[in-house]
Amino acid sequence: MCGFGGYFGSIRDAEALLTHMVAAIAHRGPDEQGKFVAPDAGLGHARLSVIGIGDGQQPMSDEAGNLTIAFNGEIFNYIELREGLIAKGRHFRTSSDTEVILQLYEEMGEDCLSLLNGDFALAIWDNRQRRMVLARDRMGVRPLFYTSKDGVLYFASEIKALLKVPGVSAEIDPIALDQIFTLWAPIAPRTAFRNIHELEPASVMIATQGQVTVKRYWHLDYPHRDEPSKITNEDHAAEELQALLTDAVRLRMRADVPVGSYLSGGLDSSLVSALAAGMTPRRLETFSVTFDSAEHDESAFQIEMASALGTRHHAIECGARDIAGVFPEVVRFAERPIIRTAPAPLYKLSALVRQAGLKVVLTGEGADEVFAGYDVFKEARVRRFCGRQPTSRVRPQLFRRLYPYLPGLQQQSVEYLAAFFGTSNAALDDPLFSHRPRFKTTAAAKIFFSGDLRATLQGYDAAEELTSRLPEAFSLWHPLHQAQYLETRFLLPGYILSSQGDRMAMAHGIEGRFPFLDHRVVQFAARLPPEMKLKGLMEKHILRKVARHHLPAAIGKRTKQPYRAPEARSFVGAEELDYIRDCLGEASITAGGLFNAKAVAKLHEKCRMETATGFRDNAAFVGILSTQLWQKNFAGQAVGAARAA
Q1: Which residues touch 37 (CB under 8 Å, ≥6 apart)?
Q2: What burial letters (b/e) apply to 317-333, b meaning 16+ CB within 10 Å?
Q3: Please, are residues 386 and 418 in contact by the beta-carbon 8 Å criterion?
Q4: pTM (2 decimals)?
Q5: pLDDT at res. 554
């Protein structure tokens, strides 16, 4: 795992620029740094050494000097690929997966990407064809950003490095902000920064003199809803899934350093940890976050699972004040406004892994998207059920069963539940049917936008743009698969793997690995009939069949408890930190120009009085605060002006 930056084109002071770019992302690779400069191209690298520790330095060139690579990530099947290349007569100078990519590229060009099983972002300078090749893994685990200035293409693992390029400045993209306050994340290639872009997952960019092309080399696809499924035997399907998942974990245990595992106490991370525990020659080390609030805490299940596996368990408590304390750093590493505090505990968790002396952890992330574990999937099923009898007073009561952890919802009337979830007026053929309630609830936070921002955004609809990005076959898929696509293609790379995943882990030089996002597992799950994933209202049915052979019954049969963290209440009260008052003060809000200062002041007071309990107010508070911090960190907005006044 690493970070890199580079350019394609003619620039001055290339060595100095690469030095500054690499320094900006040194947290991603604290072990070594390297640079490569050629006419019209340069690469810089910060290395976290995990595989080929002694001989995997980057940037790495082939023997002839025709190809040079800077690479962030791991290729988990590099041993098999290496053996295949050796059988063809090729010789290797190193034991690293980096050299495997170089030699594969020499054999196949960019077509080699289809053979890679891994999480990666890479840049290859092809001196023979005078072109720069950039690529990103299928699921979007590892980030890659780019921008152009004066005819030169610049790229890097994080935007911080691009801001070291002379003339590249940080300015909020209002469309991206609207997308964040609707969809939770910008729609790639858009980022929070105007004129700075993100290479989309499963994409390759080829830059030559005067031309840049981007194409996708892999697509997430589902069968036609009317096609008879080729997978009909549930037991056989569970056996195949067991084999695939076991192999995905096996490949991700490959490292020249110890590999640990996150353990939330839920089904997904527990299953990954159980499989990993049987593969490590040493006692597996597991890591958890605990909370002092009962509605968020899962420590009892974490302890039970760690005890069952006999792991060396580490836990860190994250209280509301802890979230407020690290939140400015969370925003700095996320590089975008966020509307949830959930990344903060994961930031602290990765610090715990680093303190324990590890560099690599497995995680259960991705299972909810791939095997239909989120409440949004069950909610959509109930909404469709209600939509077929919109006058029913019985059917809306099912929503109470979906959200036992939301006490406020339990107290609402049938009429309120029907109206809130839109059971009577929702168009069943709406491509965004499954996610409309979420988008509507989140977008309500835009009531705090300033008049100027509203004018700028007049006529823009983030949900409409999302609809325009759907594939042609989308309408032919089963409704569950449509909902899964929305989660997996957009929210997963846009928020989960970014703001909660790569950025929080790499802030402390920790590499997260995701067995459920092995593309073989993803493709297998996509072919499964919907009822094997969501059976009635029981999520991840097929995965539970696999898990029952590995987990205690109390863990394997648990209903999904969404990972959440305390929101607005983390920031207010008697011990409110100075930066919060500064960021939300009238002078700072007015100077930022994005929010209505009077409305924000009322929201702030409402949160102080603990009367802001709904999702809208919590999302608005966190979103406004994080946007103000973003402006302070990146755009130079003086959020301390309130104190000076």
Answers
A1: 14, 15, 18
A2: ebebebbbbbbbebbbb
A3: yes
A4: 0.94
A5: 87
